[in-house]
Amino acid sequence: MRALVISDIHANVIALRAVLEAAGKVDAVWCLGDLVGYGPDPNECVDIIKNLPNLICLLGNHDAAVLGQIRLDAFNREARESIEWMQAKVSPENQQFLKMLPEKHVIGPVTLVHGSPRNPVWEYILDVHTAADNFPFFGTKICLVGHTHLPVVYIHSTDKGTVNWALLPIGEKYMITDRVILNPGSVGQPRDHDARAAFAIIDTNRMTWMPQRVAYDIIEVQNRIKSSGLPTRHATRLGDGM
Ligand code: ZN
User: Fold this and answer.
1) Distance, CA 10 to ligand 1 centroid (Å)?
2) Using one digit for the tens of pLDDT, what is the confidence trace for 2-15?
3) How far is the CA of 90 from the centre of ligand 1 (A)?
């Protein structure tokens, strides 16, 4: 099966449309959460995501916060302002959709979470030590995570018992041999100094992972953020990819 893996769309529908078009035909879409927060078009994003065929979609921390499931003081001021804006804006039907999202899903050789297998909604895997601590918390060969907005692979070498990380070349297929934690990066708010929308294609038959990027109309999104009354920092950071 070939699945499109996306995460952290963050209400950026223009980036989401670009990713779906660039991905082309796939057998399934696996979305690792944070559909809302930061961007100007939360309902448009949820409407597109919830109608995708063969969808698996997980709950992210911003999704949970918009639903009132996480205290707002867990976020910095600008993230908090965007969550309050979202709470007023996300339609009751779309809130209902977010409410039904699971925190973890296992399909074949793959575990899917937003943050980490140990703490699915909240923990950031940003270094090899945190990654190493998390390998015992999933039983499959592969774990897919988002949340950090940084595309990366953490590799657990079976013979040596060590964990290493790597940044994978865009557009090249990576062969999954050892147990791995894979992050596709963020569709709607990349933070790795590459402003293009990030996504990945996983092939669970051939056991490959291909990270990809696609350019989209950032200026249009920035204008929409500014005219919507959201914090302008959410607009400027899109241009910097951080
Ligand atoms: Zn996020």
Assistant:
1) 7
2) 999 999 999 999 99
3) 17
